[in-house]
Write a structure and sequence with these properties.
Length: 164
């Protein structure tokens, strides 16, 4: 789906405020409410807007250990990757997993109650024999920046002038 400048304004507005009213969204997009709402529905149906979420300040609710983990598998057959990825997808404490190129196969972001809970999670992964050859743990000591809003304006090509 090709996006124009209006679509980008809609996406930027709902990223900044997922609870924005129809009227406020239309104003930010430069449309009347009905066409704006129809565009938003089109973006949802196309799978570009995949959901609406609240950001929770977890550390205000409970102590938490944030851990980044690098994992290298011992074998690199597609079946090995598939087995590992299925197992990871089912563990709620693993909040993100990226398959990466370079010296490691995966980078995981893990959130547990404490370091002891993290170690139990790792022990469980190793016991399941998922093909993990090596792993490195990085304890997050301070979050400097963690954005959920994507910089659409700098990532997507700009629509030619006059196509709004």
């Amino acid at each position: 789906m090709k996006l124009d400048a209006i679509d980008l304004r809609i996406l930027e507005a709902i990223q900044a405020d997922g609870r924005i009213t129809k009227l406020a969204l239309a104003e930010k997009a430069g449309l009347s409410p009905t066409p704006c709402w129809m565009r938003l529905r089109k973006l949802e149906k196309a799978g570009i807007v995949t959901g609406y979420h609240a950001r929770v300040a977890l550390r205000r609710v409970a102590p938490v250990a944030s851990v980044m983990m690098e994992i290298t598998l011992g074998n690199h057959r597609q079946a090995d990757f598939d087995r590992f990825e299925r197992a990871i997808a089912a563990i709620p404490e693993i909040v993100a997993c990226w398959s990466v190129g370079g010296g490691v196969d995966y980078i995981l972001k893990i959130m547990t109650a404490d370091i002891d809970a993290y170690q139990r999670l790792v022990d469980g992964l190793l016991e399941r024999e998922l093909g993990i050859d090596r792993y490195f743990t990085y304890i997050v000591t301070k979050t400097v920046k963690e954005e959920t809003v994507l910089p659409l304006g700098s990532l997507l090509p700009q629509a030619p002038a006059g196509q709004d």
